[in-house]
Fold each of these.
Amino acid sequence: MTALVDGFGRKHDNLRISVTDRCNIRCFYCMPAENVVFMQKSQLLSFEEIERFVRTVVPLGVRKIRITGGEPLVRRDLPVLVEKIAHIDGIQDVGVTTNGILLAEHAQALWDAGLRRLNVSLDALDPKKFEEITRRTGYEQVLEGIEAAKSVGFDPIKVNAVSVRGLTEDEIVPFGQFARETGVEVRFIEFMPLDADNAWERDKVLFAHEIIERLSDEIGPLEPLPDQDPTAPATDFQFADGIGRVGFIASVSQPFCMSCNRFRLTADGKIRNCLFSLEETDVKSLLRGGADDAAIREAVVASIAAKKEGHEINTARFIQPERPMYSIGG
């Protein structure tokens, strides 16, 4: 059967599935602070529709699934979906990205459902800075969630920290120490133009090489880990003394578009072949309109075939998508 290969020879085996656009915090780089209009429940794909879609694309070579939101843990009974997907023949890896606020409550159920990979979004270790970024409370719950996840067996746990110039420089060293003290892997992510307020500017991007330099100067030298996955978005390092791992997703300064193997299914059933796509393919109408699996696969193959070379953030041609991050899926 036809594999999901685009016009640049990139093979797509990694699907990110958003299960909701709702969230219990309001990070400025993702959502408006107030008056967010969320999708109606009827607009969201059901767990059965998501399961059918995954089963449909597995023969095209999809092997990895990551469940996102919004905040996926606000979707009722998420472990039920995790278990459905984890038991599909051909799926080798299922992960969830969460802000961690509800994680302590759900960690055991997610583990029991078959989840083994967990990413927690946490942009500051200072509680006041956390509230400035998220525009909500919940810092202690996130830390409790990480501890709960560790206690049930998740290892490694990756903590994703968006880095913004003029805001999070003072978080760099504490996060490096956090990685060394807790065993979690901290991944610094360059601030990307997907904010709901369209306030992104290149001058606000705190670049990966600057973070590496700061960590090296104030904690100790970093060494790249061997045998890294060439399709992974992060470049991973370990402190030279062997204690603590950090990673860097340099989407702006070092785009990894030419090794990208990911595509997205939004909560309302649209395929996006790139995080920054300006076009979408509606598969919800196919799922609900009686289309057979072959028709759905044909739509997915066509979407991937039309994928552009890269996101063009660093060019004058770049156009920010109308959908902000919470609506696309993290």
Amino acid sequence: MFTPSPTQMPDWSSRSLDEGQLSVDVFRDKNDLVIRSTVAGVAPEDLDISIHGDLLTVRGKRDHGREVKEDDWYYRECYWGAFSRSVVLPYEVNADRAEASLKNGLLEIRVPIRKSGERNIRVKVEE
């Protein structure tokens, strides 16, 4: 069995604390594209979800809730702070009909897939 030396182990304490990356699952469910992610400990008001063209972005933050002195830590595996994830969507979607729900720490975003040939047409007002 391979055991990495301390110099080969990732140094999680020195990684950039600016923003973590959210893990996601993306799949098709009939006429919807579904994006799921675990966001335990994140309040709904701390989530920002946007769709621009074929790019879906989820941003948020997870607060630790209390300060722990450096010497009191034994393990530090959970990520606390700001996080985000952008996903290129594999289909054209109707972003204006997207819905998001949060239940038991599971975020689910459902976006209707645009049917072939379907287009939104904006009407210009002429004076």
Amino acid sequence: MNNNRRRNFRARSQKNNFRRRNGSISSNNPNNFNNGNVSFNRNGSMNNLHNVEKTMQKYHQLAKDAQSNGDPVLAQNYLQHADHFLRRYNELNERKESFIDKSNPSENNISKDLISDKEVS
């Protein structure tokens, strides 16, 4: 192969899906409004329980540092951020527990059977 040779430019096909539209969007119909940020996902970082916990701890530490530096406004700001991530952490925990309960119905049936057996005797 000749490494000094330049490659010719090849135009890409129109399959890059960068600006795909779902059908025709009518400007007269307000129900077709597409914000674009609705499905914005930060690479799954808000859905990972471990990442949410680490972020919550980071904001708690930043709040402590700001308080020790004598900035109560910044400390309160960081605590509000930490509170947001605490709520998200609890939500993910509840979702995880409900998923585990749904995925193991046999264990739930066994525990219900044991409870009903104790009530009979």
Amino acid sequence: MKFMVAFSSPKRSAKTVGVAAQHAKALNAELVLLRVIPDPHKVGVVAELIATERPMEKAQEQVNDVSTQLREQGINASGMVTVGEVAPGIIKVAQELKVDMLFVGTTSVSKHPFFLMKKDPVVHYLVDHCPLALCLVRHEDSPDETE
């Protein structure tokens, strides 16, 4: 059995990783952390002009650190970082790896949404398009938490 976590950062993904790790440990499943970095060439001219390797390096470092912590807990964990469209990229890698379940973090819809956006576009894309089993892990928003 193989599980995957759509990983964004150690802090933002901590609860999702924790839930997935509990399931992986209980079922002796493999756990893959996946971080998809948006392709600067497709985001826009300014992003392309200022693009460096730093985001990719930082993401890989974070994924490796969390994977190592999971392995120290006895979980068969690995991590990977890719570049591309985030939501379609998550689905593509999950299908290529033949993942049984995808764990995705989501926040509560607050009374005062940020810039009137009530929905997380990545989560909603995954709910609408992912052919795999999804486990949505709700993260409660707190006033002192920065996204």
